[in-house]
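It is worth pausing here to work through a concrete case rather than discussing structure prediction in the abstract. The textbook approach is simple: state the sequence, then state the predicted structure, then interpret. We follow exactly that order.
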Amino acid sequence: MIPGITSRRKFSDLSEAEVIALAISSEEDDARIYATYAEQLRTAYPATAQMFDEMAAEEDGHRKLLIESFERRFGKVIPLIRREHVAGYYSRRPIWLVQNLGLARIRAEAERMEDEAAQFYVRAAQASTDPQTRKLLGDLAAAERKHEHRAEELRDAAESSEAGHEESDKAKRQFILTWVQPGLAGLMDGSVSTLAPIFATAFATQSTSTTFTVALAASVGAGISMGFTEAAHDDGVISGRGSPLKRGLASGLMTSVGGLGHALPYLIPQFWTATVLAISVVFVELWAIAWIQNHYMETPFWRAAFQVVVGGALVLAAGVLIGGS
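Step two, the predicted structure:
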């Protein structure tokens, strides 16, 4: 028997006392999750932290009401039963999988938590044959729906306030500093810096297999180099640019992607077909870089396009001339 899987009890096998005990432990867990969110966000996003403080208080109040109901009907000894003890019961993601997500994602996670709880209680009430248990589950579903609406109201109130707008702007800036800026630098480096060696090899050897090998090595090597450089040169504490691991990952991956974009066509055996396709991919990459600069960095599109396309064209021409000489 595998612990935690085959040893789980079915929800239909729980007594009414156990159902209430399960609801108590679930409400306690959710209150602690919301309190953790609030503590994590309090310094950077005080309005959202206040939202989670209120939600934690609501969950705690609900837990107290359930305890009072249990003690009136079944006594003071509440069975120890938790989500992981019941097959098919909704689960919660570990806090470390959610706490590093963006502000909007954490807010959405709170709504998801309430929605999952309500949906489960509705399904469980429909499957129950005991009138009292059915009523209990229905009441719990209604309570969770109220919590879900409350979460939406708190989110809307936070987002519409001046503090909420400031938080949203701050979250956007943080996303750009942590992911977009390093990724854009990597994409530019991978797309432009690999042009010369790839096309020099292509025109010097006229061999697609050799060109692909060189291109693959150049792209992967550049990605590893850019990733380590980005992660090592700034820990993000003073600059506020965020986790060096995230920045290094974004920079390294996008550098490799930028180089591999015009490397993959050389898997085609026909040299000129592969080369024409690779050059076409290069211009798509350069226009994508210009769009990202315009969309996220607010650089005027035509200025960004001129800088990127002209620079890329010069590097491409250098590679062709060197390889063909």
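Step three, interpretation. The chain has two domains: 9-160, 171-324. Strands lie at 9-10, 86-87.
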